[in-house]
Every structure is written in C-alpha cells, then in structure tokens.
C-alpha cells in the first residue's frame, strides 16, 4: 500500500482515538473502557508515558486520519553486557486500514527507533488467541524463541 503515512509522538488529544482502536476487537473490547468521557486512568497513563524518556507512544496518520498506535519501551539490561532492548506493545490499526500494510510500516518504524536508541533486540508479546497477529509478526521476522508468562494482579 503506497500511502502518505506519517508517524509522530502521540499527544493527549489523540487519546480518544487511541482508546477506540485499542477497544476495537474481541479481546480489546473486554479489557478497555471506551466511553465518553474516557476514564481518568487513561490520562494518568498517558502523562506517565509522556514524562518517561524510555517510553514512546507513537501514532500513525494517513493524511489527517489517525489510523494506528503502538507503544515502545526502551529498557536497559545487565544481561547482554548492559545492552538495551525495545519492547513493542499495544499495536493497533484502524479497521479501515487493516490488511493494507499500515501495521507493517509501523513495526518497521518502531524497529528503526530501536536501532536509533542503540537497542540490540526488539521484543513483543501477542495473545495466543490472536493467530492472525502471530502470523503477522512472523512474516516480519519475529521468532517465538521464548515462552512468555504472566500473572494477573
């Protein structure tokens, strides 16, 4: 898809659109609260991300329409000789552009950001209930090399 896709750091005024994209699938609709007004927790999280130099909430725009979002967290590690890693979270694209290459362009942009920050590794997780997402990430070169584990608090 040849597009006029642009990337930038999200601003607080983007939150409504961001949360609507996060809530626009089976799993997201069960965990997000897209309502008007948005719950204050979204604004608190946004402000924390905005103040943290190791976090970036990025949005993609097609012409003037916000069509994608992802978060990158840059983490220093003692392992790998004190290397840095980038973790991609919360990638979503608007239903209007799904399957048109926007998500791929967003991931490539995030990988370039990780390189710019000197990271030696980019990692992400995806829910096992999202087989299409798993195939998408594999097509971009990601390998399921580790078994991720979580505990809900």
What is this entry, summarized?
The chain is of the alpha+beta class and 153 residues long.
Total of domains:
1
Q: Widest sheet: strand order?
A: 1-2-3-4-5
Q: Give the proportion of residues in helices.
A: 25-40%
Question: Into which percentage range does the β-strand content fall?
Answer: 25-35%
Enumerate the spans where pLDDT stays under 50 for 5 or more consecutive residues: none
What pattern of helices and strands is seen along the backbone?
EHHHEEHEHEH
User: What name is given to the CATH topology?
Assistant: Aminopeptidase
In angstroms, what separates the terminal alpha carbons? 41 Å
The largest β sheet comes out as:
5 strands, mixed
Tell me what the CATH architecture is.
3-Layer(aba) Sandwich
CATH class: Alpha Beta
Structural class: alpha+beta
């Amino acid at each position: 898809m040849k597009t006029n896709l642009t990337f930038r750091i999200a601003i607080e005024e983007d939150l409504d659109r961001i949360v609507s994209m996060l809530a626009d699938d089976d799993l997201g609709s069960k965990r997000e609260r897209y309502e008007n007004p948005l719950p204050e927790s979204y604004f608190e999280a946004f402000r924390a991300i905005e103040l943290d130099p190791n976090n970036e909430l990025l949005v993609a725009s097609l012409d003037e329409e916000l069509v994608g979002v992802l978060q990158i967290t840059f983490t220093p590690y003692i392992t790998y000789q004190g290397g840095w890693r980038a973790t991609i979270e919360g990638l979503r694209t608007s239903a209007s552009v799904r399957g048109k290459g926007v998500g791929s362009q967003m991931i490539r942009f995030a990988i370039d950001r990780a390189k710019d920050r000197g990271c030696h590794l980019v990692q992400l997780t995806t829910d096992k209930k999202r087989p299409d997402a798993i195939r998408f990430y594999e097509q971009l070169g990601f390998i399921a090399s580790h078994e991720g584990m979580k505990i809900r608090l």
